[in-house]
């Protein structure tokens, strides 16, 4: 995790760079700049994850740097430093999606803990994004395999195959059910469930749960995933309920399953 500090007080910013134990707060490398233009140059040349920026600087204010970051679509989490509790600054900081706002003077520990908090939020956000992308990719592969087997016509077999494809596309939907699927295909739920069971030897509800658990197991093999994030990804807002069903399938909780996968 890389941090850029922008402050026109060179001694202050260099002292902070040297004396704050940044590694304890999740920071690998610290860059410094003394004005907005220098900050823009560093951001253009380096990979920056977090920005710690003073608002009041000669020339352009720190807000201008953050506005430039947003306009150029850099993915940087920003923390503002200021000596004045100006509501105008706070309001604009919010509109620019700043992650935090520190009033000076502040101890090095307070600054470090604030940076750590923002860094941890960033890590969770990036992990969730990667997990979501991984899940979408896995579902797409399953969906493509199902779609390859679709036949022409509307025979019961084709209806069931289309039903399976619909389920695979919507595994992350908490409301996915027999009634939802039947409504989508304009069919009677009793009839749909009957032909589905004839083709697949299990009911639609059983199939949905089986596939949700299969996807959950795949997602849990990703070491950066959390059990709670996986539960949400497969359509369970109630983690306790998800954990109970998962344990019935795999004989252990989602967290235990992930830990076992990490050891193998």
Q: Can you lay out the helices and strands and say which pair or pack?
A:
Layout: E1 2-6, H1 10-19, E2 29-33, H2 36-45, E3 50-54, H3 62-71, E4 77-82, H4 87-95, E5 100-103, H5 108-148, H6 156-169, H7 178-184, H8 189-200, H9 204-220, H10 227-233, H11 239-250, H12 254-263
Parallel strand pairs: 1-2, 1-3, 3-4, 4-5
Helix pairs in contact: 2-3, 5-6, 6-8
Characterize the structure shown:
The structure is a single chain. This protein has 264 residues and is an alpha/beta fold. It has 2 domains: 123 residues, Rossmann fold (3-Layer(aba) Sandwich); 115 residues, Arc Repressor Mutant, subunit A, CATH 1.10.10. 60% of the residues lie in helices and 9% in strands. It contains 12 helices and 5 strands. The chain has a 5-stranded parallel beta sheet with strand order 2-1-3-4-5, with helices on both faces. Helix 1 links the parallel strand 1 and strand 2. Helix 2 packs parallel to helix 3, helix 5 runs antiparallel to helix 6 and helix 6 packs across helix 8. The longest helix has 41 residues. The protein is elongated, with a radius of gyration of 26 Å. The two termini are 28 Å apart.
């Amino acid at each position: 995790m890389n941090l850029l500090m922008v402050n026109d007080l060179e001694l202050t910013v260099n002292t902070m760079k040297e004396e704050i134990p940044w590694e304890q707060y999740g920071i690998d490398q610290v860059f410094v700049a003394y004005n907005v233009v220098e900050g823009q140059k560093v951001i253009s040349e380096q990979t920056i994850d977090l920005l710690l920026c003073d608002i009041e600087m000669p020339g352009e204010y720190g807000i201008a740097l953050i506005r430039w970051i947003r306009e150029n679509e850099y993915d940087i989490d920003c923390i503002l430093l200021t000596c004045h509790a100006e509501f105008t600054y706070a309001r604009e900081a919010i509109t620019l999606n700043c992650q935090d706002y520190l009033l000076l003077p502040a101890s090095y520990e307070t600054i470090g803990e604030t940076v750590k908090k923002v860094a941890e939020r960033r890590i969770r956000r990036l992990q969730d994004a990667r997990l979501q992308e991984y899940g979408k990719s896995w579902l797409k592969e399953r969906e493509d395999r199902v779609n390859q087997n679709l036949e022409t016509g509307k025979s019961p077999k084709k209806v069931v195959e289309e039903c399976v494809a619909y389920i695979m596309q919507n595994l992350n939907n908490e409301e996915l059910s027999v009634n939802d699927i039947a409504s989508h295909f304009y069919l009677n739920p009793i009839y749909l469930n009957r032909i589905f069971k004839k083709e697949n030897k299990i009911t639609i509800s059983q199939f949905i749960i089986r596939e949700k658990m299969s996807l959950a197991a795949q997602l849990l093999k990703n070491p950066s995933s959390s059990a709670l994030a996986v539960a949400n990804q497969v359509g369970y807002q109630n983690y306790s309920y998800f954990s109970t069903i998962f344990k019935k399938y795999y004989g252990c909780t989602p967290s235990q399953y992930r830990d076992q996968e990490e050891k193998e």
